[in-house]
Specification:
Chains A, B: One of its GO terms (molecular function) is DNA binding. Chains A, B: This is HTH tetR-type domain-containing protein. Chains A, B: It comes from Neobacillus bataviensis LMG 21833. 2 copies of one chain form a homodimer. Chain A is mostly helical. Chain A has a domain of about 130 residues: Orthogonal Bundle (Tetracycline Repressor, domain 2). In chain A, about 75% of the residues lie in helices and about 0% in strands. Chains A and B meet through helix 6, helix 7, helix 8 and helix 9 of A and helix 6, helix 7, helix 8 and helix 9 of B. The first copy, chain A, binds a DNA duplex through helix 3.
Chain lengths: ~190, ~190
DNA sequence: GTCTATAAGCAGATAGAC
DNA sequence: GTCTATCTGCTTATAGAC
């Protein structure tokens, strides 16, 4: 594995855990076991350039995970249930679920560049597109599918924040049980 | 108004906008127009002590706002609708809604003290208690009321994050329109 | 209760050797 | 491509005068 990929991999986790401002360059160098010179060779524009690369890495990892699950199960209801189960599984194994969200970056956006905002926005849109396509296949109108996709995205992201705050996977369990209500055709 | 309250008021906004790590002590002093000596007189244990005070201030402001609205409207559905309308109004007037959430702090929690985590958790529990009480009054069983309250909390917090990311109040509008589906008694 | 001066350490970033 | 040495500016925090 090359150095650049190593930096992206390790730094992605650090950013997800502690946020952008919460991770110092020296910490990155230490954990990656590299020098400043090496870091700046791969990211000439410094830490924020690394952040963008990490966000793209998170985006790929998260969307491909979701796509995988949504391709494996026939309905949105089943796929969503399995997806949340997977996140809960990660929580129970690793003790945290920061790897499943970019909320640590989103929350700092106000002080970061517009490129960061766009990269975050892109990820959310991609997630919602996956949900929306499945919902349309379930028979919802395009408009309704889009609305439910936003609601799914919001409630899952919000529930992840609640889980992190309460140190418990319960909020995710609760919304997993309630989401079917949203997927009823009235 | 005394200095301590002034510091708490101004710093609360800064923390909500930029997160804990994102706000330097010098910035606080500058905006409050006070000196280091004055700051450390009121908060001998430094910045994190100020954060706890600010979190309590946010907690009071947010819960009393919600309580106010939930007392004014007869059903959860109406109250929720009005509450989200209010947040959207703030977004349209101020261009942001960081004042309505503690997500910036929640996202940094992994690197902060356990006291911070508890204070954040407390706020979420208080919000859910207000929702849950109203839902019980609407006729839901205690258990169901608690579940829906978690879902409301998660989806609203999540939607706020989406709004901040997309620079648009649309996600809040979408969930406001969908929440009634959750409040249907099956 | 507020001020200034000071301190030790770390931030992100650069230069230039190898 | 990786290294060390260095730089500037900022970080939180303290001491002590007023």
């Amino acid at each position: 594995m090359d150095t650049k990929s190593l930096i992206i991999d390790i730094t992605t986790t650090l950013f997800q855990q502690k946020g952008y401002k919460g991770v110092g360059l020296n910490e990155i160098l230490k954990v990656c076991n590299i020098s400043k010179g090496s870091f700046y060779h791969h990211f000439p524009n410094g830490k924020e350039e690394a952040l963008i690369a990490c966000l793209q890495s998170m985006s790929e990892a998260i969307t491909s995970d979701i796509e995988d699950i949504f391709n494996r199960y026939p309905t949105t209801e089943e796929a969503t249930k399995k997806m949340i189960e997977k996140v809960i599984g990660i929580f129970e194994r690793e003790g945290t679920i920061t790897s499943c969200t970019i909320s640590s970056i989103v929350s700092e956006m106000e002080s970061l560049s517009d490129q960061v905002r766009h990269t975050c926005s892109d990820l959310y849109i991609k997630m919602q597109r996956i949900y929306s396509a499945k919902l349309a296949a379930d028979g919802f109108s395009k408009e309704t599918a889009n609305s439910i996709a936003v609601m799914m995205n919001a409630s899952i992201e919000g529930a992840i924040m609640l889980c992190l705050t309460q140190n418990s996977s319960e909020p995710l369990t609760v919304i997993s049980n309630l989401l079917p209500k949203l997927l009823k055709k009235v």
